[in-house]
Write a structure and sequence with these properties.
about 525 residues; alpha/beta; eight-stranded mixed beta sheet; about 15% strand
């Protein structure tokens, strides 16, 4: 097969100045590629939540309900339309969690008022006159006792406040009544001493007004004294049977897992920003500025590598399009190992009739030979060669068994020549035939040569392949060895980029070194983790 002359190869990727559109797939690509990090951090969050659930004792929660009522003079009077607004529940909730209630609870049950304030919670349903006291404690007995004591302490504090207000109003009325009674006594004394009729009428009229005022004060005082200062009732007391575990502890596990996953995603983006890898063909073009020779995919199933072999053959056609024998092609990488790709390219190039020499100076010759032998067995079958021998024509067996002259066919001996020693001293010794190194196509090959299709692949060092027409050099990683760049100066280079492993900074540095050494690479090949 004659190699074609190199032709122009246009980079069909978008220009670097063209802004790209970020899709949802692009956002998910980083966490998926850093899935190990995200999973590890998520597991740490889950373990932390699990440790909290197992080590921290569960808090018991008890609830008591108090119905708040407005202070009215006549409890039997029907309430009006605004009865639900007769009590300011925000004020009542503030009093229920106030210092005086907490201090009474601390004096009764014992403990730090700050801890009691944190454990006590008062809920006010919307549009209702109900206070729900919820108390959390380490055991059920303390939770029930504290919840009931908190509800009773609120009622006692509120009743005391109402009684103080009533006492102040009664004292004010008593003072006013005392002053009016004193005025009434003085007027009565004047009325008894007045002898003029007109003056007596005036005193009597004034005394009537004083008596009327005294009557009103006494009536108002009677109403204030009759006010029911009961602030409400405990409609539901806390009981042990109604105690529940505070919080939903299984939700802590879910929260720990989701929180760890979120932190892991953030760390994945942070790591990706400092350690950029080649994720796609566009990343390879942007980092190298070279044309794409082909992509080598990893097979979806371990037992079906045909897709990878086909990709390698396409890459081989692209390489053959750009080189002309004698050719020296170095497969260079930044930090990765291109042994599998080198062997695959050698098999694909030799299958078309080329004599390929695979050179390696890093002790990987046997590995290359093993890979070539494995890849050779997966070459497509030549349709011109029959897969099974032709069937014999009818009657051929009988003709061979008995010829036309009627002679009897000699049966083969069960003992092959040389199987047992002969007693005849003049008998000749039959030596077994030595098989010649002749492949299926009938061509004699060197023991160090592997026949592939109509071509062959030989192995050795770079100096041993000096006289061969097509040499593939399996270069060591360029970050630690410069021989790949040195060999590429004598021919051409193919940059091998391994997806999700090759760092963009290493790839840019490799291309810069090649160009600084005067090497114009043929292009780059994008591979996947695994076989190639």
């Amino acid at each position: 097969m004659t190699d074609a002359t190199p032709g122009p190869w246009s980079t069909d990727g978008p220009s670097s100045g063209t802004p790209g559109t970020v899709t949802l797939t692009d956002l998910l690509r980083v966490p998926l590629h850093r899935l190990r990090l995200v999973a590890a951090v998520a597991m740490v969050g889950l373990v932390a939540a699990l440790g909290y659930v197992l080590l921290v004792p569960a808090a018991m929660s008890a609830s008591a309900v108090v119905a708040v009522r407005p202070v009215v003079t006549d409890a039997f009077t029907p309430s009006g339309a605004g009865a639900d607004r007769a009590v300011n529940m925000n004020v009542e909730s503030g009093i229920a969690t106030g210092t005086e209630v907490v201090q009474r609870l601390a004096d009764s049950a014992g403990g730090d008022p700050r801890d009691i304030r944190n454990a006590l919670e008062v809920e006010v349903p919307t549009g209702g006159q109900i206070l729900r006291f919820t108390y959390q404690a380490g055991d059920a007995q303390r939770a029930v006792q504290s919840a009931n004591m908190a509800a009773q302490a609120y009622l006692d504090v509120r009743r005391t406040m109402y009684e103080q207000q009533r006492a102040e109003m009664l004292r004010s009325y008593d003072e006013s009544i005392t002053k009016v009674v004193a005025q009434q006594t003085a007027l009565q004394k004047r009325a008894s001493t007045v002898k003029d009729t007109a003056a007596g009428d005036a005193v009597v009229a004034e005394l009537a007004g004083i008596n009327n005022q005294l009557t009103q004060l006494n009536a108002a005082r009677t109403e204030i004294a009759a006010v029911d200062v009961n602030p409400g009732w405990v409609t539901q007391t806390a009981e042990k049977a109604l105690v529940t575990s505070a919080g939903h502890r299984p939700l802590y596990l879910v929260a720990g897992l989701l929180g760890g996953a979120l932190v892991g995603i953030v760390l994945a983006y942070a790591w990706e920003s400092t350690d950029r890898r080649v994720r796609s063909v566009a990343d390879g073009r942007d980092a190298t500025g070279l044309p794409l020779l082909g992509t080598v995919r990893r097979p979806a199933l371990r037992g079906s590598p045909r897709a990878v072999d086909a990709d390698i053959r396409y890459v081989a056609m692209a390489v053959a399009e750009r080189v002309r024998q004698p050719a020296r092609v170095a497969l260079v990488t930044a930090r990765e190992d291109a042994t599998a790709l080198t062997a695959g390219l050698a098999v694909a190039l030799a299958a078309d009739g080329r004599e390929v020499f695979v050179a390696d100076d890093n002790g990987r010759v046997e590995r290359l030979r093993t890979t070539v032998l494995a890849d050779r067995g997966r070459l497509p079958v030549d349709p011109s060669r029959p897969l099974v021998p032709k069937p014999r024509p009818a009657g051929s067996t009988s003709t061979a068994a008995g010829g036309a002259d009627g002679t009897t066919t000699r049966r083969p001996s069960p003992h092959p020549p040389g199987a047992r020693p002969s007693t005849d001293p003049d008998a000749t010794l039959t030596l077994p035939r030595v098989a010649s190194a002749r492949p299926e196509n009938g061509r004699v090959t060197d023991p160090d040569e592997v026949a592939v299709g109509v071509g062959s692949v030989r192995f050795g060092t770079w100096r041993q392949g000096a006289d061969h027409g097509l040499v593939l050099f399996n270069a060591p990683p360029a970050e630690s060895d410069e021989r790949g760049v040195a060999v590429a100066r004598q021919g051409s280079a193919v940059v091998v980029v391994e997806r999700d492993r090759t760092r963009q900074s290493d790839l840019r540095r490799l291309v810069e070194r090649l160009r600084a050494a005067g090497v114009t690479p043929l292009g780059f090949v994008l591979t996947r983790n695994g076989r190639a």
